[in-house]
Amino acid sequence: MEASAEKQKSNGKTELTRHGIDFPLFIGILIICAFGLVMMYSASYYYGLTKLGDGAYFLKRQAIFLGIGMAGLFILSNIKFTFYRNGVVAILMYAGVIGLTFLTLLFPPINEARRWIPLGFFNLQPTELGKLVVVIALANIMSRKVPMQNFIAGMAPCLIVLVGLCVPTILQPNFSMVVIYALITYLMLYLGGTRRSHRLLLVLVGAAAGAALIIKEPYRLTRILTFINPEADPTGAGFQPLQSRIALANGGLFGQGLNFSRQKLLFLPERENDYILSIIGEELGFIGIVLLLAAYFFVIWRCIRIALYCPDKFGRLLAGGLTGVFAMQVIINVGVVSGAMPSTGQTLPLISYGGTSMIVFLALFGMILNVSRYTEVGMKNAKRTKE
Questions:
Q1: pTM score, two decimals?
Q2: Please, is 37 exposed, middle or buried when counting C-beta atoms within 10 Å of its C-beta (0-12, 13-18, 19+)?
Q3: What is the C-alpha R_g of the chain?
Q4: In the chain, what are the domain boundaries?
Q5: For residues 347 and 62, what is the distance between their CA atoms, to the nearest angstrom?
């Protein structure tokens, strides 16, 4: 462990003692990433070979994304988390994401949506960065001497942060990301200690706004109806959900065996991306999915532990919010693939193919691992209290 202690500052902020990162969490992340490379290669091989002439096309690119993400993880794990508590830093990050989200509107649409900025090697999706920025911005507000029980002084600034991110996002259009931003904001408001009645008001207003946006765009209503009854349009909107269910059913308890999926033979769209869990289920069965979810649960548990034991309020909010983002993404993807939720286009973290998603989630863990460097004081105090 590193042994550099920091003196308590004159402004009364908590003394933070730096030590090593949470090593079990880091090992859990590595295991999921390694498993993800194997499964992504299996899921994408046939498509890469038949359509692109290279069965390892997606594997090579994903390995590069993983390398970039790991470099980011190591860098961010060594940048003290209090750096993000600087108001100027938080504002610049927030404004940068909003600017990049507006910039996507200048590029040609992909699948009838403008959500990406082409960078040559991969397409950057700024709203993925927004998941981190909304946590940082709200943790900034809530960690200051702000009466969070007061609607105007406490909750209103948080809602302004939410609306600022949602405006360019809905123009892309990306309704599912707006919903995710709202869920992250609700989580942060809960962690920040706002009144239950104020959060209920947010839910009611959000539900009304969501219903209006769904009614306004027919494709959103179609997505809801498809979720309720995909068999109504088995060759159209319901094709992907039904193929996903077929893959999971084929897997049974123990699966067909690694690389023996039939649905990846161009039956299931997005097999290496949003619906890779279907291929995992088909090849490794229910047992394989359970083991993967157990690995996710272990990582989430370690992150929650870090948030609880951090002696600094901003650190607790930052780690807690980022943990919520990761857990939320896992739950949403599993829900969509299993047919328990409407399609949202959200990846399976650290598993699905995609540069922005991989890099962003490893950056997320880099920040959480940095918070873990300063949890020793909190752990010792907690043990003394129990004794």
A1: 0.91
A2: middle
A3: 21
A4: 18-382
A5: 14
